[in-house]
Amino acid sequence: MKEICIVEFPSNLGLKEPQPGKEPGVKNLPDWLWKHHLHKLIHPKNSVRLDPPKYSNKRDPETQILNSNSLIDYAREQAYLLNNLLSQNKFPFILGGDCSILLGTAIALKQKGNYGLFYLDGHTDFMNISLSETGGVGGMAASIVTGNGADKLTNILNLRPYIKEENLWCVGNREYDDAYENEIRNSSATYVSLDHLRNQGVLKCVQLFLSEIENKNLDGFWLHIDVDVLNDTIMPCVDSRTPDGLTYAEFNELTSVLFQSNLLTGLEITILDPDLDPTGQYTKEFVSHFSATFNQHIHLGS
Q1: Beta strands at 3-8 and 46-49: parallel, antiparallel or unpaired
Q2: What's the number of domains the chain is made of?
Q3: d(CA 214, CA 264)
Q4: For the whole model, what pTM was predicted?
Q5: Does residue 141 fall inside a structural domain?
Q6: Vertex 271 angle, CA 54 and 100, to 5°
Q7: Rounded to whole angstroms, how far apart are CA atoms 264 and 191?
């Protein structure tokens, strides 16, 4: 039986400043979720924290990416920590941070074997730097971990690709724009937009993903959750708001099936910005739904 270990990666290195001179507040997410009792509710065996390098809003001249050198240093430290946990048969329950925390996770997974990635997000995050207005890795994370983009980020420790492109499922995007969507449509990843997810049915989509993981005989899969996949009316405290999104009924149905799989290796929660939820009303609701679904359905096999 795997033990749950909460891992805190309070990084905002993958986002632009929301206003000049102000850092993105998502770096406070682990403390904010602790304040709203998530740590207590999911009964972890222990918790560990790795603070990131200092934030800067300057682009790296070589890659045009924000904080690229800091992200590389941080990813290596993250991977070392996660590799140790996975070697001890722990279940890493990661609290971000923005989506750039995926880099360290993906490197650790590559070091352990061949894994799938279920990328649940209101955006594909499968974007080339040429399309990025901000230079933030948060909007390119799924693309970078599958080997697309600047060599210094995609080939850390000579491990490109960290996740094979054909083992990536991007699910829940509702940023409907041809230039944006064509990036993932033209890849070998599986792309399931929000409209497609609803037409296909949540259960069918997840079952197809799980059967693919089994048929390919992968070592397991990772669940990435950007809370902006949720409907904007129930989760407005994110950096890039878009109308529509999953209801809690849809989100709970989807995650409950993933939680029941003994191939789920770990998960991460990203993007909820405490600065944008001053009363905590949206966070409380999220913690209530997530912890209840997780505790009811999680299957932590050997």
Answers
A1: parallel
A2: 1
A3: 11
A4: 0.98
A5: yes
A6: 55
A7: 20
Tens digit of each residue's pLDDT (9 = 90 or more) over 218-247:
999 999 999 999 999 999 999 999 999 999
In a domain, 291, yes or no: yes
Residue 171 has φ and ψ, to the nearest 5°, of -125, 130
Beta strand residue intervals within the chain, DSSP E: 3-8, 46-49, 90-95, 115-120, 168-171, 190-192, 220-226, 264-270
CB 176 within 8 A of CB 193: yes
Residue with tokens 């064509």: 182
Per-residue pLDDT tens over the stretch 64-114: 999 999 999 999 999 999 999 999 999 999 999 999 999 999 999 999 999
Q: Which phi and psi (to 5°) does residue 37 adopt? A: 75, 15
Residue 20, number of CB atoms within 10 A of its CB: 6
The range of the structural domain enclosing residue 128 comes to 4-297
Beta bridge partner(s), residue 222: 117, 266
CA distance 137 to 129: 9
Domain for residue 302, yes or no? no
Polymer length of the chain = 302
Per the domain annotation, does 280 fall within a domain? yes
